[in-house]
Amino acid sequence: MARLESSFKNMLLTLLGITFLSSAGVGYVYEITKGPKAETERKRQIAAIQAVLPRFSNNPLQEKYAVPTEAGDLIFYPAEKDGEPVGTAVETFTDQGFGGRIRLMVGFLPGGNINDIAVLEHTETPGLGDKIERKKSNFINQFAGQNPEQFDLRVNKDGGDVDGITAATVSSRAFCEAVQRAVEAMNAKDKNIKPIIVEVES
Amino acid sequence: MNQWRNFSKGFFKENGVFVLLLGMCPTLGVTSSAINGLGMGLATTFVLVMSNTVIAAVKNLIPDKVRIPAYIVIIASFVTIVDLVMAAYFPELHTQLGLFIPLIVVNCIILGRAEAFASKNDLLSAFIDGLGIGLGFAMALVMLGTIREVLGSGSFWGYKFIAGDGILVFVLAPGAFIALGFLIALVNTVREKTGGIKGEN
Fold it and tell me: What DSSP assignment string belongs to B17-68?
């Protein structure tokens, strides 16, 4: 069982060979998973939009555009059914969550009312901040159908109309901040749109 | 080599989590639910089996002085492959496990078996060893995950059986340590009683 001796030449050649084969293998798997990965991502985004808007027949992903806000760009997904606009889904976020960034998808109807909201991503505390999720509490349901002009998007504690989650004020406030950001962008969008070039799948 | 004993040692006598006490980071980090534990366990088993096999196959071509970097590159390649495949075909699990998938590279069980076993044994034995230790690791993660999920979330493999929350500490870090500590104590008690610790035969 003689192992190759550790001469400089041997070490160099072995490491070269191993790294070359590894790169080739990983590169190959990357190529064959590229398609399914993009498809999975696309499905996930469509599901998030479907969760917050009424039925639509177009592909909002193909028509998305960005609206700049002071904290960053928000992505807007317009939805239509048979040529008539049925709403716009706005991907918004906040960094004021107790555990960091919370990402939401807010669905707006053509009149500006909020249709519904879905949580895309969060790292809030289990049992406390994670109650922003629909299956953990009713918190998120109070936004459906609200008109942002009349519904003050701040927690009761700060003088607003939102019933915060008990013992999770930071998470509740952060959630409201993300929704407010989406509302502001909705109001500003007619003045300032950044089109997004959508890559055609090859 | 008795391949049955080679395979079965990974489940009890040389269990990576309860006896070798290796791979603690993913064990504590992803076992907040049974399914996550199973997913991580199987991903690690795949990497362990592939890396053990490849390393046993090329062990004579790797000069001694560069063996650690060589093993790590091999292990990292398989972990990357697992990461890519999971992202493409198991997206929910991939999101749940998150950062812990790339961390499989530094799971001490994998490098440990490469150094202690795969580099010194034949291909078949290395393969069987990887399979046994890997599945034993998966078993340990599933045990810990089930306990933590039942106590912490009041659900069993995703099916909630109580309304509301469980004993929340168990889905957080302290609870992981507590549950693992009790499991190791239990395993050690059994090992003492069966003469395992005081005279490993």
Answer: TTTS---HHHHHHHTTSHHHHHHHHHHHHHHHHHHHHHHHHHGGGS-GGGHH
